[in-house]
């Protein structure tokens, strides 16, 4: 098991290694395996990349983001411009049923709402908006439409987890209640945890994933 100091060194190195992240503007603190990032960044996309970098590091049990997005002068846009850019981005994505997604922008924060058919569409909507100039944050309030579920949904999910991550699947319990799937058990890294949640969220008929997985380094 890594010490907090070792984790801090690894996280700092991963941030410096990650393209698109200005590691010089990020402070790193670690306590009991929980990593806290602090400082200011120029874009929301950079904030997302920084979080993803930390989650890749083995031994990290959790991430706290105390990062503020302060847009560079050349990236500042008014809310109307951001809203129009977001609508255009959604319209141009083949993964998004854009006619069912609404956009609201306040002080650079984009709120997405509406109803889609599948979990991957909910994720795709946020991915469209995240890298746009002028965006300071994204609130994803899009709801996944309930579907008639296959009777063997639990078995299908278990099989998918085994295909994607055999070691982790052995320690994950799956509970299905309607379209809500709860995952319990132990994984060995945030990366494994994210992979399990992502696999389940992509399953047809799943409207929400409740993540109760514990990361044990």
TrEMBL record:
<dbReference type="InterPro" id="IPR014004">
    <property type="entry name" value="Transpt-assoc_nodulatn_dom_bac"/>
</dbReference>
<dbReference type="InterPro" id="IPR007055">
    <property type="entry name" value="BON_dom"/>
</dbReference>
<feature type="domain" description="BON">
    <location>
        <begin position="149"/>
        <end position="217"/>
    </location>
</feature>
<feature type="domain" description="BON">
    <location>
        <begin position="3"/>
        <end position="73"/>
    </location>
</feature>
<dbReference type="InterPro" id="IPR051686">
    <property type="entry name" value="Lipoprotein_DolP"/>
</dbReference>
<feature type="domain" description="BON">
    <location>
        <begin position="78"/>
        <end position="146"/>
    </location>
</feature>
<keyword id="KW-0732">Signal</keyword>
<protein>
    <submittedName>
        <fullName>BON domain-containing protein</fullName>
    </submittedName>
</protein>
<dbReference type="Pfam" id="PF04972">
    <property type="entry name" value="BON"/>
</dbReference>
């Amino acid at each position: 098991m890594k010490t907090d100091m070792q984790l801090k060194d690894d996280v700092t190195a991963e941030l410096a290694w990650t393209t698109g992240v200005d590691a010089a503007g990020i402070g790193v603190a670690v306590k009991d395996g929980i990593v806290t990032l602090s400082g200011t960044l120029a874009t929301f996309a950079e904030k997302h990349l920084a979080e993803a970098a930390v989650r890749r590091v083995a031994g990290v049990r959790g991430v706290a983001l105390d990062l503020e997005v302060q847009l560079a002068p050349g990236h500042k846009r008014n809310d109307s411009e951001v809203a129009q850019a977001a609508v255009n981005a959604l319209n141009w994505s083949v993964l998004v049923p854009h006619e069912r997604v609404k956009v609201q922008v306040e002080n650079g924060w984009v709120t997405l709402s509406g109803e889609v058919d599948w979990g991957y569409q909910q994720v795709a909507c946020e991915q469209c908006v995240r890298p746009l100039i002028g965006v300071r944050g994204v609130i994803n309030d899009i709801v996944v439409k309930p579907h008639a579920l296959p009777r063997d949904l639990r078995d299908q999910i278990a099989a998918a987890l085994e295909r994607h991550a055999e070691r982790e699947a052995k320690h994950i319990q799956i509970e299905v209640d309607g379209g809500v799937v709860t995952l319990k058990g132990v994984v060995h890294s945030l990366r494994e945890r994210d992979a399990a949640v992502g696999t389940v969220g992509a399953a047809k008929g799943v409207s929400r994933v409740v993540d109760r997985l514990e990361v044990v380094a």
